[in-house]
Amino acid sequence: MATPPVPPRPLPAPRPRIGLLGIMQPLYDAMLPGITDHQAEYAHRVARHLSDTADWTVAPPVRGREDAERAVRDLENAGVDGVLVVMLTYGPSLRVTGALTRTRLPLALANIQPDPSVTAEWDMADMTYNQGIHGAQDTANALVRAERRFDVITGDWQSPGFAERIDRWARAARAATALRGLRVGVFGYPMNGMGDARVDETALLRALGPEIEVIAPGALHRATLDLGEKEVAELLAWEDEAFEVDPRLSAKERDDHARMQLGIERLLTERGCHAYSTHFDAIGEDGRFDRLPMAAASTLMAQGYGFAGEGDVLAATVVRAGHVLAGDAHFTEMYAMDFPSDSILMSHMGEGNWRIARGDEPLRLIKRPLDIGGLADPPTVLFRYRPGPATLASLVALGGERFRLVVSEGEVLDAPPLPSLEMPYGQYRPDTGVRDCTEGWLRAGGTHHMALHTGHRAADWRALCDITGIEYVRV
């Protein structure tokens, strides 16, 4: 299978940064001199063992309220994405409740102990070292009573299954942090009359964090004019290597497309946006553009930007969250149902993340007629989705600060090609079948724009919902 080309300037994809907060108390010092150092080393062993899942910052053992306040404050200042609480011994909950309920960082309780099994050789020291579970119970009770969201991860900390769950939670914590700092650029204005993409932007900001940055089409026009010939030439040379380029594309068409892509990227970088949306009418009615930036959206998505068409901030947000959560999210919509194969044809006007393309066919940059927008033919990256497990996710605004994520798992079929379809596409078969999936989607208010991932990612999306308070609905 061919390896997808590396995008020209991928966005940084930082690993999760997680703080480990170990809790104990001075009660056992006289009975077991050196217990604090002993259990501190245990905390560091846990972090070292989990080093493949995240970059870890291990706080000094918390033995009292002042320790807890200082440790949580230091972890916040260190910029961690979440805090994993580990009971090093029993620790009374009231000494840590204040610090844990005030922090905005995602929390998880690791219900673990140093030794995986109770043996005949255990003495009172071993009992003390391994008694974390009732400290976890005490602390969890306090968090529940405070209505503070948290996750619980139980198991042998040296097992692959435990590492897998920590990895999922850490990635979800990283995605939640990314949402809190996300800025979504909207070029022009959203599509008139399209209701499921509309959202109260102040409620979105308060509940999840994304901020909307409106960017005038004139700013994009000026950005395309300010580009140097070297930048354009470098992008075109990269495309020549990455894509099978349609010989019908003229030098003028490719130059124009490249300038729009680079102009969008420059504005997103200058304004700190990691997601964006364009609307064909906003581009077409401006009067200064020859064509729509279709290929631009495909490569910018492949670089890690969230994207959605028609000014859809919600979909752009969920695509960016998907990039951070699991990598290579793709913008799409349900175009038509195919009942004989129990599948749904997925596509959009011409935008698609070519990182999810099947590897046995070339990525093609084609000259493609498109009447929408009333402009000239937009160069478009054409590919079919890679067959195999897949997941759909839709972010729904329910009013006020209530949001819902509608999720479906299934597979992309190895279906026959559709030769006349000149845009990225694939046929998705839901695990629950077309009828139950689409009926559930409609009843839950799932939107018509969504993110698609290769792989089964429902558990990842659920972890993000648990952290952020988004309602999770699987159909």
Automatic annotation (TrEMBL):
Q: Which residues does the UniProt record annotate as the domain L-arabinose isomerase central? A: 198-326
Domain named L-arabinose isomerase N-terminal: which ranges?
Answer: 35-178
Lineage, uppermost ranks: Bacteria, Bacillati, Actinomycetota, Actinomycetes, Streptosporangiales
Q: Species name for this entry?
A: Nocardiopsis coralli
Which InterPro entries does the entry mention? Answer: Ara_Isoase_C, AraA_central, AraA_N, AraA_N_sf, Fuc/Ara_isomerase_C, Fucose_isomerase_N/cen_sf, Lara_isomerase
The protein, known as: L-fucose/L-arabinose isomerase family protein
| Keywords carried by this UniProt record | Arabinose catabolism, Carbohydrate metabolism, Isomerase, Manganese, Metal-binding
**Stretches assigned to the L-arabinose isomerase C-terminal domain:** 329-471
Origin, by domain of life? Bacteria
Single GO MF annotation:
isomerase activity
